[in-house]
Amino acid sequence: MIELEKLANMVDHTLLKADATKEGFEQLCKEADDYGFKMVAINSYPVAMCRDFLQDSEVHVGAAIGFPLGQTTIETKVFEVQDAIKNGADEIDYVINIGKLKDGDTDYIREEMKAIVNASREGGIISKVILENCYLTDEEKVAVCEIAKEVKPDFVKTSTGFGTGGATVEDVSLMKKVVGDEVKVKAAGGIRDLATALKMVEVGAERLGTSSGIKIVEEYRNLH
């Protein structure tokens, strides 16, 4: 089995609720630091606050962009990325324009990805592309992953956690099969226990977006 420290360092510790408060973000950051998680996954407004909370920590601050629907313009998403970088973000997770993909407009998806990945690279931060697989056919998932192989964001990601479904073993396997070693895969949405987390890692996920990271780590500890 994977070592606990390595597993914990795959976790993007998540707080994306509309009613999240300063106290909640402070607790999130403390937990991420205490447990050795990789990142706190938050909306863009609290980025500067969480950067302050984590100023002496190795935990990254990650901003959600175009979240959770993806229905903003490319220019808006790029501005969000630049603003998040200015406020101290180390990583961004952006939602593709799902409707454009459903329309078959892969040129738009490519243009959007290039613009956001370039803005991230210019800021020296990690970029992740959220597909929101629950709304997509396998062909559409493959199409985005093929574009990602070309554009080279750091990660492709299964879900926002706000759609009609989250990460599945089948989707992670499919995405990994397409991107290979060119791009990493992040599984997110519905990962609430150790067994699920380990299945995702087994089929190729290198990050896990979850608000159940503490439960997963404690389950692991109880096994040993």
Automatic annotation (TrEMBL):
Belongs to the DeoC/FbaB aldolase family. DeoC type 1 subfamily. Pfam families: DeoC (PF01791). It catalyses: 2-deoxy-D-ribose 5-phosphate = D-glyceraldehyde 3-phosphate + acetaldehyde. It comes from the Bacteria. InterPro entries: Aldolase_TIM (IPR013785), DeoC (IPR011343), DeoC/FbaB/LacD_aldolase (IPR002915), DeoC_typeI (IPR028581). The active site is at D93 (proton donor/acceptor), K157 (schiff-base intermediate with acetaldehyde), K186 (proton donor/acceptor). Its EC number is 4.1.2.4. SUPFAM superfamilies: Aldolase (SSF51569). Keywords: Cytoplasm, Lyase, Schiff base. This is Deoxyribose-phosphate aldolase. It is found in: Cytoplasm. Its main location: cytoplasm. Gene3D superfamilies: Aldolase class I. Catalyzes a reversible aldol reaction between acetaldehyde and D-glyceraldehyde 3-phosphate to generate 2-deoxy-D-ribose 5-phosphate. GO terms for molecular function: deoxyribose-phosphate aldolase activity. Pathway: Carbohydrate degradation; 2-deoxy-D-ribose 1-phosphate degradation; D-glyceraldehyde 3-phosphate and acetaldehyde from 2-deoxy-alpha-D-ribose 1-phosphate: step 2/2. CDD domains: DeoC (cd00959).
